Amino acid sequence: MKSDFYSAISQIAAERGIPREAIVDVMEKALATAYKRTLGSNPPPMEVVVRLDPQTGMARVFAEKQVVDEVFDERFEVELSLARQIKPDVQPGETISIESTPRDFGRIAAQTAKQVILQGIKEVEREHIYGEFMEREGEIVTATVQRTAKGNVIMELGKAEAILPAKEQVEADRYYHGQRLRVFLLEIRREERGPRLIVSRAHKNLILRLFEMEVPEIFNGTVEIKSIARESGLRTKVAVAARQEGIDPVGSCVGMRGIRIQNIVNELNGEKIDVVQWSPDPREFIAQALSPAQVVEVNLNEIERSALVIVPDKQLSLAIGREGQNVRLAAKLTGWRIDIKSATALLEEEREASQAREAAEAEAMATEAELAHARVETRKVRPDGTVVYQSVHYGPLGDELAGESVQLRATSQKLYIYYNDRLVASYMLMDENEETEEAATPASESE
Q1: Which of 122, 278, 327, 370 is disulfide-compatible with 226, CB 3.0–4.6 A?
Q2: Dihedral angle over CA of 36, 41, 47, 53, nearest 10
Q3: What is the Cα–Cα distance from 121 to 129, expressed in whole angstroms?
């Protein structure tokens, strides 16, 4: 029959969820330390090994001792004749590992075992928890709400304790004791008090894992999630693509009568989810990302990575979304900066731009007509780089033109200055009382 000691060890291992061998190993190390304490305050360096029989609970101590001809301290020395019974060729001065179990070591072992159960096993449990959850980092786990503390939600995760920080919570969620929630295992930190598990309800990868659980096509790889944009608790956009011909990626995610997507929405307490078709063509992808709004046209600026999207007038508010949410999520999903305009607004802008062009062209034609009939006058550029026209200084034209002759032509509003048939400057005409940065005070004499 198995001993009470064996049964107790097995029960502890089952309750704690850790291997029985790990408990025995910790107890053996603790007993070795306890034996060393019996050797005094400053024993010589020696190796001590304790072997614990898991059936009977009996502890046997094996310690290194020095082989001598005559023993003065049996704690550290062993007689040559006795040592040669274990190792025939041993010589005086060598060390040998020999059983050294004290007579009252059973009592010491019982006391130490109690301390290990109260203290050492907790460390084994912590290491076991760390090793178990280290492999599950980045996965979805189910946790039970225990309490709240300083804005954080403390959750039970099997034998471990998890923390849901305030920044990883969803504003729309309400947490109460005993509530079971699926959470994303964000990080595992090794701390003195044990591993700290950080979980999240707001991370976008929670969406990814939920789709993998609910949509077999995503789990087996025939449908791929290309990108996710999320404003937790409010709305999420998911771009999907098929890796196999004949599969509708959006339909696969939505499911028959929307059952698959509804399961995910329910898990997220009603958060809206838009599943859109991914496309390698940025224009098509941007148009899909703005769903449910309809798009008339998408114009891209590759250099600035921006897109101008034209939508029907009645679709403008839908495309932008409440407080800009729809277009903001579409921009995150596609990686493009998106500007939205209605068709009427675009036509109005184009009409105004056309009128401005026509006005500019008409002004240019009028100026050309005036210049064609304008009288050409020659002036010599003054040493300060200016020329004088109707008693007003215009310039400076630059030191390289000082002393050179230039030709002047004037329209009703501007003065044009030419050098070698090349226009070098133009100025608004002014009277003698005006002063500007380009024109000085009226000349004292005309040239």
Answers
A1: 278
A2: 0
A3: 12
Taken in order of first residue, the domains within the chain and their CATH numbers are 4-131 (3.30.1480.10), 136-200 (2.40.50.140), 279-369 (3.30.300.20), 374-447 (no CATH)
Res. 306: pLDDT tops 90: yes
Quick check: 227 and 241 in contact, CB under 8 A?
Answer: no
Report the half-sphere exposure of 164 (CA within 13 A, side-chain side): 27
* Residue showing tokens 């798009």: 295
Cβ atoms 309, 297 nearer than 8 A: yes
Q: CA 200 to CA 204: how far, in whole Å? A: 9
| Each residue's pLDDT tens digit, 167-188 | 999 988 889 999 999 999 988 8
Task: State how far the Cα of 404 lies from the Cα of 224, in Å rounded to an integer.
Answer: 74
> What distance in Å separates the CA atoms of residue 337 and residue 345, rounded to the nearest whole number?
19
Q: Can you name the residues that pair with 147 across neighbouring β-strands?
A: 154
Say if CB 156 and CB 162 are below 8 A apart. Answer: yes
65 phi, psi to nearest 5 deg: -130, 155
> Does a cis peptide bond (omega within 30 degrees of 0) precede residue 54?
no
- Alpha-carbon gap, residue 135 to 445, rounded angstroms: 94
For residue range 9-56, what is the model confidence (pLDDT) as tens digits?
Answer: 677 777 666 677 777 787 777 777 777 777 776 776 778 888 877 666
The residue with tokens 């990080």 is 187
Cα end-to-end distance, the chain, whole Å: 130
**Do residues 154 and 146 touch, judged by C-beta distance below 8 A?**
yes
Structure tokens at 446: 């005309």
Of 69, 17, 61, the closest CA to residue 36 belongs to: 61
- Strand 392-394 and strand 422-428: the pairing is unpaired
Q: Which amino acid is at 169?
A: Q
Q: How far is it, in rounded angstroms, from Cα 116 to Cα 30?
A: 7
Euclidean distance between CA atoms 177 and 164, whole angstroms: 14
